Amino acid sequence: MAKPKKTELRVVINPKIDRITKAIALLTDQNVSELVESALEDHLFRVYKDVIDKHSLDQID
What we know:
The protein is mainly α. It is built from 3 helices and no strands.
């Protein structure tokens, strides 16, 4: 089965968060994209669960 195609998302972040993100990725043997995707998904589904459920956003392909 082929991996789903990824899209590019560019963001501007605080330099301290950038350094911490890169350090954690290195220390946990992940690339930055994997780490950020996982962290963003966790945050969105935890903090915005009501919005996601109300608008069925988890059904978006």
